[in-house]
Design a protein that fits this description.
The chain is of the alpha+beta class and about 230 residues long. It folds into two domains: about 10-145, Jelly Rolls; about 155-230, Winged helix-like DNA-binding domain superfamily/Winged helix DNA-binding domain (Arc Repressor Mutant, subunit A, Orthogonal Bundle), CATH 1.10.10.10. About 40% of the residues lie in helices and about 25% in strands. Strands 1-8-3-6 form a four-stranded antiparallel sheet. Strands 2-7-4-5 form a four-stranded antiparallel sheet. A three-stranded antiparallel sheet has the order 9-11-10, with no helix packed on it. Helix 6 packs across helix 8 and helix 6 (about 155-165) packs across helix 9 (about 220-230).
C-alpha cells in the first residue's frame, strides 16, 4: 500500500477496485499514484468551480460529490452524483485541462486527490498504462451516452422508476425498499424533470406498486416495475 497519511487498507482496496484502476496491478498503481493525498470535508461545500484548472482528479473514499451546471437563471442542474468507490474529473485532466462542471461535496466526505501533473508524467513513461486508462475512460463515456439516450426515450414516470431500480440490490425480483440518496429536488434535476413532474411521477407509480414515505420508496414487486420501465 502506498504511504499516504489517512489512507487505510480498505481505502486502498476501494481505490484499486474503481473501473479506472481495476486492470492495474497493485505495485504499478502505487507507483502511479505517488503524491496523492487524502482530504476530508467535515462541513461539505464547494470542491471546484466550472472553468477552474483541472490540476487533480479524485476517488470518493466515503460520502458523495454532486457535479452540476448552472442554468441562466442561476439554478443548479445536476449532471452526476458520485458515490463511494467512484472516480471523477479524470476526463478533464486528459481533455480541456479545466473542470467542465461545478462540484460540491457532502458533509463528511473523504476524497483521494491525485495530482494531474505527476500522474500524467508517470503515464507518459508507460504507454501500456495509457492505453488501459483511455480504454476505461472510453467505457465510461459510452455508459454516459447510453444513459443520456435512455433518459430522453423515457417518460418522467419511467425515468423515476428506472432510477429506483438502479438502487435495488442485484438479484432482487420481489419486494424491495430503497432510500433516496438525494433530496427530491436534486432527484428531479438528476433525471431531467421538474419538481412538479416528479410529484406527478411519484403518484403515477402507485398503480405499479410503488409507494413512498419521505425518502423511502417501497416497491411491491421489482419485476413488475422493471417491465413497466422497459428495463428487463
Amino acid at each position: 500500500m502506498i504511504p499516504i497519511p489517512g489512507l487505510s487498507a480498505a481505502d486502498w482496496a476501494l481505490a484499486g477496485a474503481t473501473p479506472l484502476f481495476a486492470e492495474i496491478d497493485g505495485d504499478t498503481l502505487a507507483w502511479l499514484l505517488a503524491g496523492a493525498s487524502v482530504s476530508s470535508f467535515p462541513d461539505g461545500g464547494m470542491l471546484f468551480s466550472q472553468g477552474d484548472p483541472a490540476d487533480r482528479f479524485f476517488v470518493v473514499l466515503s460520502g458523495r460529490v454532486t457535479l452540476y451546471a448552472l442554468t441562466e437563471a442561476g439554478d443548479q442542474s445536476i449532471i452526476e452524483v458520485i458515490d463511494q468507490g467512484a472516480t471523477f474529473a479524470e476526463g478533464a485532466i486528459f481533455a480541456s485541462a479545466r473542470y467542465p462542471l461545478h462540484a460540491d461535496v457532502l458533509a463528511g466526505t473523504r476524497l483521494l486527490e491525485i495530482p494531474a501533473a505527476s500522474f500524467l508524467r508517470r503515464l507518459s513513461e508507460r504507454h501500456g498504462l495509457s492505453a488501459k486508462l483511455l480504454a476505461a475512460l472510453a467505457r465510461w463515456q459510452r455508459r454516459l451516452m447510453r444513459e443520456v439516450v435512455d433518459l430522453k426515450a423515457r417518460s418522467p414516470v419511467q425515468r423515476l422508476g428506472a432510477y429506483l431500480l438502479a438502487l435495488v440490490a442485484p438479484g432482487v425480483d420481489g419486494p424491495a425498499d430503497v432510500r433516496l440518496p438525494l433530496s427530491k429536488t436534486e432527484l428531479a434535476s438528476r433525471i431531467g424533470i421538474t419538481p412538479e413532474s416528479l410529484s406527478r411521477a411519484v403518484q403515477r407509480l402507485r398503480p405499479v406498486g410503488v409507494v413512498t414515505e419521505g425518502r423511502l420508496f417501497r416497491i411491491s414487486d421489482v419485476g413488475t416495475l422493471r417491465r413497466f420501465c422497459g428495463t428487463e
